[in-house]
Structure formats: C-alpha cells, structure tokens
Design a protein that fits this description.
The structure holds 2 protein chains of 2 kinds.
Chain A (H helix, E strand, L loop, with lengths): L5 E4 L4 E4 L4 E7 L2 E6 L4 E4 L3 H12 L6 E4 L3 E4 L3 E5 L4 E5 L5 E5 L2 H16 L1
Chain B lengths: L11 E3 L10 H21 L1 H5 L36 E9 L2 E9 L1 E7 L9 E6 L14 E3 L2 E4 L6 E6 L2 E6 L4 H8 L3 E5 L1 E4 L2 E2 L11 E6 L2 E7 L5 H11 L3 E5 L6 E4 L5 E4 L14 E7 L2
Antiparallel strand pairs in B: 2-3, 3-14, 4-18, 5-16, 5-18, 6-7, 6-10, 8-9, 8-10, 11-12, 11-15, 13-14, 13-15, 16-17
The chains are: A alpha+beta, B alpha+beta.
C-alpha cells in the first residue's frame, strides 16, 4: 500500500510531507506554522481550519493521527510526551531528536489526557 | 477568510474520525420532508431578497468605463518564498485564457484599510491598492465600510465584501454579512465591491467595457490579489479567476488606480498611474494596505 502524504498546494508552490514527519501545526492569524520532525518550521499561507480540512480530505481516517486542540493547534498524537493541566503545558517529543513545548487551555488538556487514557484502555 | 471548522479553545477534536452514521429509513425521510417544508416557507416569506438582484447601484467614480489603458509588462522573477520572517509580496505572472495576469501573493503580512491620500513614502506599507469605490455624486464611500471598528458608510450597492477582523481576512459574496457588525465590535475593517467569484462560480456583473482589472481573491484560504496586464471585460476577468481556481473574489479598483507591492528583495513594484490627480472630493479614497507582521 502506498504511503499517504499530505500535500499543501498554493498558487506557486507545493509542500508534500508524510504525516508522521509533522510534529504540530500552530495558527498565526491567516497563516500556519508547520513544525517538522527535523526541527524545521514551514510557514503555510492557510488558516489552521483549512489545513485541518486538507488533513481530513487527503488522509481520511488516517487523519486521526492528528488532534485539533482549541483554535490554535493541531498536534500529531504520536508525539504527545507530557501533559500538565495545571501549568497548561503540553510537550511534544520523540524523546530523541526534538522536544517542543506548547500551551493549551486547561479544559482542552484535560480532554486530551482523558482521550489518551481512554484509548490506552481499549 | 473566515475561521472554518469552528472550535473553542477549551475543546479538542480528533481529525479524520469517521462521522456518525446518517439517520436511516423513516428518520431520513422525515428529515428530508421537514427540510423541504422549511425551504418552501422561507422561499415564500422572502422571495424578493432571495431572487432579485441589487437595484440601482450607486455610480462610483472609479468604476471602469470604456477607457483604454495601456500597460507595460514588466517581467519579474518569481520571488522565492524565503522564510525571512519579514513581510513581502511574491509577484508572479501567469496567463489564463490568453489573459496575462499578475499575482500579488502576500507573505507574513497584516492587512487593513486606510482612508485618505496614502503616504507613498511609507516604507512600512508592503502593498497598497484602492479598495472600495467612491460615489460620484457626494464623494462618499460606495457600500458599507468599517475602518478600525468605526462605520464610515452603510448600504448595499455591491454584494462582494471583504472583512478583516483580528488579522483574519474573509472575502465573500452576500447581501447581508454579520461580519460588518463583527468588524465594528472588534475594531476590524470591512468594505464592499463588485463580486466576481462566489464559491468557485462566476458572478455576472452588468458593467460593460474593458479596463485593467484587479481583484482580491481567496483560493483555498490563500489570500492574494490579481491584476490583468491587458484590458479585459468583467466577464472575461471573472472567468479567468474561476479557471485560476479561485473560490471567492471581489473587485478592487482597476484601470489607472495607483498602488504598489514590495517584493522579497525590498523592491517596490508600482501599478496604475502614479501621476493620477486626486480630486478634493475624493477625501474618502481608500486603500487595502498590507504591512509586515510585527
């Protein structure tokens, strides 16, 4: 089976990236910043909601690798390393090459923690 | 671009999860029947709003007539989308349906509106283009207009709109847009212009004649402006935008209206006629302005 790639195409350029190479995507007004596993950051001229749509449309159910957290963040669930609700801290890491700390609301982090715990039990 | 896939900051959502199964059997039929009834009721209550076009549009001073405008095509290298962190406008030439067009694609910019004669020496302005038209009779702005939360003009004479709220740009076509109120509440910006493309479909306008055309476009969430490098009719321009893959587009003042774009190398590319004299009546001349993100 062919490996699926996320393709983000604009009028003049195109980004093609394997989903597992994406650590997270953060919103920046009309734009997004896509953080890769090689620690590179690529600016995308799309809103986060539109990138979410691309993920859903192109990856289908495989898109559940990604979790939208609030209005400002899409994360790759494979890299969830640490959640601290009280300090609103979420660390995304492969415990090897990269570690990124992002913040989210307490309620969102609580839901994320519950989701991870629930899935671990299934 | 209106924020899509609404979500609150205290919510999370797994992307790509399968949607819940659709209602089946009699439930599905019941829903369909209810939808048809509601549709008929709405149609009967407001038939004129849903079917009739805007009447008696206010004549604007910049609306294109049959004037012939000559342009000089400047070949510019395609700007590399370097991650400089500084705002710039990528300038790319293309041809659609034999119509030569120039695309101005902004990177790392904040958009706003400006009313009055613009300072052409202001280097912080990376892109400027005239936005809403001005009424020929009283110099007022044509259509609803909001400047930093302050309504400057009301009324619907053109169905296309652009709203800039909290750094988010929405280009669309609607008789009434709640974004006008939202712009006033949140210190945003709003203006109206002729619609060209609505959800990927060409919008016909009654205006005739040919001129250099400009448009503000939304293509899959990417906001950019387009200028024809030859004089074109509204219809042909709108069709070219559709064929370019634009989802929504509204007109920007065309012909010799002056403006500029600064490319990745910091070079300013001017368009329109910089020597155009502005009448005192045009105190409401207004611009779509882009500055580098702070």
């Amino acid at each position: 089976m062919l490996k699926k790639y996320l393709i983000i195409s604009t009028t003049t350029d195109l980004v093609r990236i394997a989903p597992d190479k994406i650590v997270f995507i953060s919103s920046d007004g009309n734009y997004c910043n896509l953080v890769q596993t090689d620690n590179e950051t690529r600016m995308l001229t799309f809103q986060l909601g539109q990138v979410e749509n691309m993920i859903r449309e192109q990856l289908g159910t495989d898109g559940n690798l990604f979790i939208r957290i609030g209005r400002g963040l899409i994360i790759n669930r494979n890299y969830i390393y640490y959640i601290n609700i009280q300090s609103q801290k979420l660390i995304l890491s492969d415990v090897s090459r990269f570690t990124h700390t992002v913040s989210a609301s307490k309620e969102a982090l609580k839901q994320l923690k519950d989701l991870i715990e629930k899935e671990a039990k299934e | 671009m209106k924020e899509i896939n609404e979500i609150r900051d205290d919510e999370i959502r797994v992307i790509g999860e399968e949607k819940p199964p659709k209602p089946q059997g009699w439930k599905w039929l019941l829903l369909l029947l209810a939808g048809i009834i509601v549709g008929i009721i709405i149609w009967q209550m407001w038939p004129s709003e849903l079917t009739s076009p805007v009447e008696n549009p206010e004549q604007g001073v910049f609306e294109p007539s049959n004037e012939v405008v000559e342009t000089t095509t400047v070949k510019m290298p395609l700007a590399k989308a370097e991650e400089t962190g500084q705002g710039f406008v990528e300038i790319a030439d293309t041809t659609i349906n034999d119509i030569p067009m120039r695309l101005y694609i902004p990177h790392s910019v904040s958009m706003s509106l400006y009313v009055g004669n613009i300072d052409r020496n202001d280097q912080s302005i990376i892109f400027a283009a005239q936005a809403a038209d001005i009424r020929a009779d009283n110099g007022g702005i044509v259509g609803a207009f909001v400047l930093e939360g302050e309504p400057k003009a009301w009324g619907l004479s053109k169905k296309g709109y652009c709203a800039i709220i909290n750094d988010t740009v929405t280009v669309g076509v609607a008789d009434n847009s709640p974004l006008f109120e939202e712009a006033t509440e949140k210190g945003g910006y709003f203006f109206r212009q002729f619609p060209l493309v609505d959800k990927g479909q060409l919008v016909e306008n009654e205006l005739k004649g040919k001129a250099v055309r400009r448009a503000l476009c939304d293509r899959s969430g990417e906001i950019f402006t387009v200028e024809t490098l030859s004089i074109e009719s509204f219809h042909d321009f709108a069709q070219a935008l559709v064929d370019l893959g634009v989802d929504n587009a509204i007109y920007l003042v065309g012909a010799n209206a002056y403006g500029w774009a600064t490319n990745v190398d910091g070079q300013r590319h001017e368009f329109g006629d910089p020597n155009t004299k502005t009448s005192k009546k045009w105190r409401n001349i207004n611009y779509l302005v882009m500055r580098g993100k702070p």
